[in-house]
């Protein structure tokens, strides 16, 4: 099953020491306003896809879509929980981690395009989201994971592919996440 949070943890760990911040960026959310700031989030986590701008999610604790963090702040939160298999809730739990670390989420100001700021490309008819809840997953998804994150993500790199996107170097990783069914029985469909 898909685990967005674990994949972001892996991306963080594999990014090395030559980066100072990360952009947790959903691939199906495209910015349409050139005034959006993707710069270094010096003052703390910066939520580019804030609830006032996101086309779908408008609740004040929402931090999904596009969130920028310094590597130091991501480490302070111990990354994201690895317990979220399937679609959803991992960013809601991450909001609680951010607050627990004493960090303040900042959001864009002066953007006048409102809900037209982004294009959301997800087409459920073409690619269905894995929203199945297995075993105790439904109850577990509302808990804060105080132990897991960067410190215990388990994975294997199947392949690395170097490429260039608009002249910028990029590395695509093919990752196999470990699924411990004794810890999270909902990590498989079976």
From TrEMBL:
Transferase as UniProt keyword: yes
MF GO annotations: metal ion binding; xylosylprotein 4-beta-galactosyltransferase activity
Cofactor(s) required, per the database record: Mn(2+)
Galactosyltransferase C-terminal domain residues: 45-120
InterPro entries: Galactosyl_T, Galactosyl_T_C, Nucleotide-diphossugar_trans
Swiss-Prot/TrEMBL catalytic activity: 3-O-(beta-D-xylosyl)-L-seryl-[protein] + UDP-alpha-D-galactose = 3-O-(beta-D-galactosyl-(1->4)-beta-D-xylosyl)-L-seryl-[protein] + UDP + H(+)
GO biological process, one term: proteoglycan biosynthetic process
Any Gene Ontology CC annotation: Golgi membrane
Keywords: Glycoprotein, Glycosyltransferase, Golgi apparatus, Manganese, Membrane, Metal-binding, Signal-anchor, Transferase, Transmembrane, Transmembrane helix
Record's bilayer topology term: Single-pass type II membrane protein
Pfam families: Glyco_transf_7C (PF02709)
Pathway: Protein modification; protein glycosylation
Catalytic activity, EC: 2.4.1.133
Subcellular location: Golgi apparatus membrane
Function according to Swiss-Prot or TrEMBL: Required for the biosynthesis of the tetrasaccharide linkage region of proteoglycans, especially for small proteoglycans in skin fibroblasts.
Family membership noted in the UniProt record: Belongs to the glycosyltransferase 7 family.
Name of the protein in its database record: Beta-1,4-galactosyltransferase 7
Organism whose genome encodes this protein: Crypturellus soui
